[in-house]
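User: Hi! I'm working on a homework problem where we have to compare a predicted structure to a textbook description. Could you give me the structure for the chain below?
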Amino acid sequence: MASGLLLAATPALADVKTGVDAWSRGDHALAVKEWMGPAASGDPDAQFNLGQAHKLGRGVPQDIKRAEAWYRKAASNGHIKAADTLGLLLFQDGRKTDAVPFLQASAERGDPRAQYIMGIAHFNGDIVGKDWIRAYALMSRASAAGLEQATRGLAT
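Assistant: Happy to help. Predicted structure tokens:
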């Protein structure tokens, strides 16, 4: 009974879960439809999920700019995975300076991809200050997490 009241009190959460269930079944269009309302109302999980849908082109046409916009909204609403993904997306798009705050935070949380990127950045000194000790530490952590390119980078 209590769980029914919880779902009734938070219909946006129910729509997000319904969308996740639809996505899991491969019904991406329905998932996107379910997430639109909660995302527009500020639900960070729905916003992140819409970012993923637009990035992958599932349920909607692939659109990296829209994906970025949804990730940015979710990140501004406290969604950590959206902030991590946004940093990687900005970096891949060549907006390295814009990506740095997201990547630094992600690296500090232990994301090996961000650790690798920030390790290279500290080694080269191109988007952050040159710091070979920090570069080595970040690359070592990324390598220990199993990121193959970090292991190759350490060998270099």
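For your comparison, note the following. The longest helix spans residues 11-25. Residues 1-11 have pLDDT under 50 and may be disordered. Good luck with the assignment!
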